[in-house]
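for the writeup, i need someone to sanity check this before i put it in the appendix. the sequnce is what the collaborator sent (i think, or maybe the updated version? ugh). structure was predicted straight from it, no edits. if anything looks off just tell me and ill rerun, i have time this weekend
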Amino acid sequence: MRLRFAPSPTGALHIGGARTALYNWLLARREGGSLILRIEDTDRERSSPENVEQILDALRWLGIDWDEGPYFQSAREARHRELLEELLRAGRAYRSRATAEDVQEFKRRWGADRGFRGRAEGEGAVRLRLDEEGQTVVHDLIRGETVFANRHLDDPVIARADGSVLYNFAVAVDDLDQGITHVVRGEDHLSNTPKQLQVIEALRALGVGAQREPPRYAHLPLLHGPDGKKLSKRHGASSVQELRAAGYLPEAVCNYLALLGWGTGDDRTVLPREELIARFTLERVSHNPARFDEVKLRWLNGVYIRNLSVHELARRLEEFIASEQPEHRPALERYRHLLREAAEISQEKIQRLDEFWPLAGFLFEEERRFEERAVAKHLDERGIALLAEAERRLAAVEPFDRDRIAAALQEIVAERGVKPGALYQPIRVAISGKAVSPGIFESLAALGKERSLARIREALDRYAVKAP
């Protein structure tokens, strides 16, 4: 089995393209086949080396490797022209000056169910000559067999007047030359398939790749957003790079993408990569559009984060901050020894890596910004009084660890007859500037006695005079 992933480098790798790459990869790995990476860069105006690197980087991040390539379609221009000339010499293709308007006029005159047939002329675009009595059969592994009677089809244009070939011709030649046995791609390519098969059959009739069968095709359902409309930027992240920058883990993304249009039959959601490879089949791919819901992806990503070891989570966070949040690197470097502890006490609260710094960044930053709503709600007269008592008790705690901190603060709760939140929230606002943080005992212990007391005293100095 030889499969190919053939993106056009006209932008970042779209989520739909990533799913296509993943399905090809899963199938190749399950069947012991080969995955060929082909860059279809014949759109010179929109293709760029930067876009190529974006695609390669996205595939590497997802853990999708390839066995051959990357091959560049633009490098095969001579081969495309060579085979185009063979078709022209054999009469399987011809030059025609017929325009789109000419084709429409032909349809009006002879009826819409009759395909356009042009006459050979000395110049003009190149059209493939179809056998009007024949038929083109698309064997789709997902959708079943579709038969197109050639009499209803126009002779397709396969090259421009200057001899530069069009997409459907170049793809057909490359698939044939590279021995592609299965083409797994999006449903948006379904209309291209008959044209590519026609080119392949014309070439095979001339002896080009005659010993090879045409590829078998599988067209994947489109991706929609939660609203049922085609997935786009209005639904949130639309590319792999955007998912990476948002703090998703590659293994969670692959797990979620695999389930967009494919299922295991047992409703399992969390599937490690090895299990995806073992269980993936095209037979279980749906015909219907799949809905990409970032809320579900975020939940699944949280599951993967909680399943990481603390050491691995700390490593991922350090890597993420270095690449996506470089403004925080100096603070992280200053208190690098706190990263593992901060990761551990945040692990149950975050669902994406980008949520770590807003939650626990106060452990690393010297300055903090007090949120007005948090101050107004928790540093009122009662909150200030409880905070002052906490400062006095915490100053006596030694050693300053989680259990002793908890015992000291729980004593205050019991003695004052208040709910825990009435005491813990003023402390949380004092040390972090916000009403949300990891557990208060763990946060104080991670911050350390000196820094914790200094922050509590600063908050008392700043807000005690404002209390009624």
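Residues 13 and 56 are 9 Å apart (CA to CA). The mean pLDDT is 93.
thx in advance!!
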